[in-house]
Amino acid sequence: MDDQRCIYVSDNEKQEVRRYRMEGDTKSGDLLAGGHGKGSGLNQINAPLFIFVDQQHAVYVSDHLNHRVTKWNKNATVGIVVAGGQGKGVALTQLSHPEGLFVDESSTLYVAESRNHRVTRWPQGATQGTAIIGVDTQINWPVGLSFDRQGNIYVAESGQNGPHRIQRFFIQ
């Protein structure tokens, strides 16, 4: 829920993200991202598994099967690719099945890549990320991210063929 008492919902079946206000008509919600069917166009998404809403109410969408993260500014009709978008792969310009997202106060994006078994960091405007977890540390299918006030990042792992767990890491 945001500071205006709105709830954001990612609908994997309809390939869209909507915002529902707690007051007034909550049946249809406001379309914020996608809504034009499954696809790879900048007005489309394909499996929006995770979302993040920043302080300016921009919505970041983990576009799982397009292997990218898109940012949808307020009142936008198309998304902006802010991570990946170069097809599925292991290069630092690519993502493989992005899931959990987090954007910090400096607009740096953190992405859990489940199939690359890593977490990448994308400063605002970057054309490639930096692998910050999963290089020297073994993680297994990371799906969720969270930070605490001390700068620790918590990574939830789905454990496809391994343990389901949450690990804590300190990053700089």
TrEMBL record:
It comes from the Eukaryota. Keywords: Glycoprotein, Repeat, Signal. It holds the Pfam family NHL. One of its GO terms (cellular component) is extracellular region. InterPro entries: 6-blade_b-propeller_TolB-like (IPR011042), NHL_repeat (IPR001258). PANTHER family: PEPTIDYL-GLYCINE ALPHA-AMIDATING MONOOXYGENASE. This is Uncharacterized protein. The lineage of its organism: Eukaryota, Metazoa, Spiralia, Gnathifera, Rotifera.
